[in-house]
Amino acid sequence: MSMTVVVTRNVSDRARGFLAGAMLELAPGVYSAPRISPAVRDRLWTVLEEWFPNERDASVVMLWQERDVPGGQAVRTLGSPPVALVEVDGLLLARQQRQRPSAL
After folding, report:
1. How many domains does the chain have?
2. Bond before 53 cis per omega within 30 degrees
3. Containing domain of residue 13, as a range?
């Protein structure tokens, strides 16, 4: 079990209430649980993924300690901008996809 943090932006009251029922809301949209099992963390994420298509202009980031990944921290994201964690020369970097400018 390890510390899990979820940061949300523009999510519905339903999602906020769901997260607040399982985690401590430290600040608006920032949730923390110091000792959460991987099974509970996966279940929370599954529910958020199922509900996410109903959200508008929202994003969710979940992170926790994971010794087996570069940098020792795992991250999951929903919404935009999508971020991919990549290892470059032993460093863990966050890579954002480029957004193409809209045509005029």
Report:
1. 1
2. no
3. 2-96
Is residue 101 domain-resident? no
In a domain, residue 102? The reply is no
This model's pTM is above 0.85: no
Tell me the C-alpha to C-alpha distance, in Å, between residue 98 and each of 8, 74, 81, 84, 95.
22, 22, 9, 12, 9
| CATH assignment at residue 41 | 3.30.70.240
Would you give per-residue pLDDT tens digits along the chain (104 residues)? 789 999 999 999 999 999 999 999 999 999 999 999 999 999 999 999 999 999 999 999 999 999 888 778 888 989 876 667 777 887 778 777 666 665 55
